[in-house]
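Dear colleagues,

I hope this message finds you well. In preparation for our joint manuscript, I am sending the UDP-glucose 4-epimerase (Pseudonocardia xinjiangensis) sequence together with its predicted structure, so that both groups work from identical material. I would be grateful if you could confirm receipt.
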Amino acid sequence: MKLLVTGGAGYVGSVCAAHLVDAGHDVTVLDDLSTGHQDAVPDGARFVQADLAEAADDLLAEGFDGVLHFAARSLVGESVQRPELYWSGNVVTTFRLLEAIRRHETPRLVFSSTAATYGEPEQVPIREDSPTRPTNPYGASKLAIDHAIRSYSIAHGLAAVSLRYFNVAGAHGRFGERHTVETHLIPLVLQVASGTRDVVQVFGDDWPTPDGTCVRDYIHVDDLAAAHLLALEHAKPGEHAIYNLGSGTGFSVREVIEACRTVTGHPIPTTVAPRRSGDPAVLIASSEAAVADLGWRPQYTDITRIVGDAWRFTQSRQPV
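The corresponding structure tokens are as follows:
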């Protein structure tokens, strides 16, 4: 298929683009490089550096079989402080993409959604029919986009799938996580191991969990990419399907840090900080729907394997 990958120079987008190229698809990556990296665009993909809202119409006029939409702002804290960036950069920009999709009759869309659409869960594991009550503008913006996509599918016959990620981690060869502002646990811990950070903060050690630290569901980025390829194949005209993507297994903050110590051989000092407001104690996905409907099943659920791939990528970025 001829596919447009928006945000394909970012972490998840670049890994998915690499998988698409490897599968034989004709891939165009669109990215403004505001947070992405041009060297993360996989070999064999065409690269267009441009603003999505401005370029989507002209690009889709070329005729594409589908769009995989990763381009977005994704910092929770920033979304609270500057919500206008998220309503404009996520919601308004995606509306313009949807309009271009409608005008040029692009048949398929796979959207990068998030577990943040659920907010604080009433029960775990979290299913797709769980209440959606996002606690920050980032999650709210993604939920608004899910609603917009559903209406376009019903009205215009778009075959669409939203994939709600839990904690994405790991790396795919030279494609990995490198944010200017890093907020994710595993890369933060690995920064300590590589010497670019002194200590890891643990936000609360008195949570109602076995070791007192928060528990999260980590999914390997390669498993995530595999789900996107399956979503493209299974998208049905006039339908908007939503699937959670997680391993179905939770690891505590302390377990993740210990896995990083094992992989890196570094002691990784920690300090306990107060709990962060809005942090649920446990977030674990039910991915039963993706397993049943897409035939998807995560292959890399061992936290040491996930950390090991991320560590190899981190080392590859270190100066020689």
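For the figure legend, we might mention the following. The radius of gyration is 19 Å. The first strand starts at residue 2 and ends at 6.

With kind regards,
E.M.
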